[in-house]
Amino acid sequence: LAELVASNAQNTTLPSDFSIDASHELARFIYENVTPDPHSGTPVSVRITLKSASYICPTFVSMRTAGTPNRGPRCMLHAKPEEPPAGLLSTSEHLKERCVYTTGSHIYFAIKTCAKFHKERITIIERTWAANAQNRRYYSDVADVGIPTISTGIPNVQTGHCAKTMAILQLSLKDIGEQMDIRWLMLVDDDTLLSVPRVSALLSCHNHTEFVYLGQRYGYRLRAPDGFNYHTGGAGILLSLPLVRLIVERCTCPSASAPDDMILGYCLQALGVAAVPAAGMHQARPQDYAEELLLLQPPVSFHKFWNTDPEYTYRRWLGGSSGNSSVPLAAYTQRVTAAALRLHERQPCPVVAGFLQETGLESSGKRLDL
């Protein structure tokens, strides 16, 4: 199968210019590209689909119990969460040495909004993660002293927001001024949910004095000479303060309504700054992902309030108002074990509905979910 994929990789037109979900896209590529076996010349008569293998587990769990020692499948392979990102939780001495303790007070949260969402969305942020984000500013197309919001001077548009985002970065730098405590800027939408303690833990082992660009990484035209990686805006984009200054100095918008997250990625790639993926940052809602994925790595952010209860999402998946960087990671040990047991007890899902689930971002007709 590996040889079959390799032999067809360069000769096949991909269904989209965007690279979003590597595992889904690989499965789809294998399923849709039925070509002759390069060694035997015999055509593959059926499409190749994923099979569920009970011995490959999303997380490690022993299926043995005291009364039933041989019950259930055993795990031969399982995924492991990433090393906890800060010296706070790690027993690794080399991590402790290179990590810098980071809290919400070191992060400037620049929140994009517009007049029509002031009452609908900002109130949700204020009831959830805002309590841990003392350095937060709401940037809008109009100034509203009741919130308050800061006007960017840029009229609202339905998609794109490049001019607005550049204005936000300029205004943010002016607002930050000489505040020595601010090390990072996080650019988020007004319908982004996040855990400030988990964002802080994520940032603790990145050097804020260098050019650092973190988020949920997407790709555009990656097989073409002009292809590039970028971080999708809905999940939140994390920038070190030196990088914000570089962006303001060197990056421009081809048009006011150009896609801001893509333009940032394109410009930064041209400047030699890599888009570093951050596990746990999510462009969509919890229900748009497999539960196994969310249980493996503590979520850092989600996007979209549509058809969901954002306050429940915050409590359930992001630690709630009492969450801190250590509790969610520690509590996951017990939660993952219990959840994995439940998942093993499920009936096998049909292949297409089970492991080839799409996020919904492609089928919406919108290439960018901003």
TrEMBL record:
Annotated GO MF terms: glycosyltransferase activity
Cellular component terms per the entry's GO annotation: endomembrane system; membrane
Compartments reported by the entry: Endomembrane system; Membrane
Membrane topology note: Single-pass membrane protein; Single-pass type II membrane protein
Main location: membrane
Taxonomy, superkingdom: Eukaryota
Stored InterPro entries: Fringe-like_glycosylTrfase
One Pfam family recorded for the sequence: Fringe
Similarity field: Belongs to the glycosyltransferase 31 family.
Official protein name in the record: Beta-1,3-glucosyltransferase-like
Organism per entry: Drosophila rhopaloa
Gene that this polypeptide is encoded by: LOC108038450
